[in-house]
Amino acid sequence: HEMPTSNGSEDFTAVAERVPSAVFMLGVGSIDEGHTCSMHNPGMLVNESALAEGAALYANCAARYLEAHSR
User: Fold this and answer.
1) Are 26 and 50 a contacting pair, CB within 8 Å?
2) How far apart are CA 64 and CA 38, in angstroms?
3) What does the pLDDT look like over 16-64, one tens digit per residue?
4) If residue 7 lies in a helix (H) or strand (E), which one and from where to where?
5) Higher-confidence residue: 24 or 65?
6) Which of 6, 51, 53, 71 is least buried, going by the fewest C-beta atoms within 10 A?
7) Spatial separation of the C-alpha atoms in residues 60 and 38, rounded to whole Å
8) DSSP type of residue 56
9) 68 pLDDT exceeds 90?
10) Do the beta carbons of residue 54 and residue 26 sit within 8 Å?
11) What's the pTM?
12) First-residue to last-residue Cα distance in the chain
């Protein structure tokens, strides 16, 4: 099972209007694994093994941006 998709409610629009931006929603568990609460809920469970992949994703994006925009 997948959690329902959402446009979210992150207040990121003000930043994205001023600088190149991206937002990623990192999935850290499934309903089948007992993950029934979404972020900002005190009952949220996190599969911490997914955090390394999320960090790698952001690091890769930063490195590619710097390569493309360095002098």
Assistant:
1) yes
2) 30
3) 888 888 878 787 888 888 888 877 889 888 888 889 999 999 999 999 9
4) none
5) 65
6) 71
7) 26
8) H
9) yes
10) yes
11) 0.62
12) 46
Tokens of 37: 């609460």
Residue that the structure tokens 């994006």 belong to: 61
pLDDT band (50, 70, 90) for residue 15: confident
Question: Residue 22 carries which DSSP code?
Answer: -
- Contact by Cβ (8 Å): 50, 27: yes
Contact 24, 57 (CB under 8 A): yes
Rg of the chain taking only CA atoms, in angstroms: 15
Tokens 């309903």 correspond to 31
The token duo for 68 is 């493309």
50: left (phi over 0), alpha (psi -120 to 50) or beta: alpha
> What would the two tokens of residue 56 be?
């790698």
CB burial readout 30-43, b (16+ within 10 A) else e = eeeeebeeeeeeee
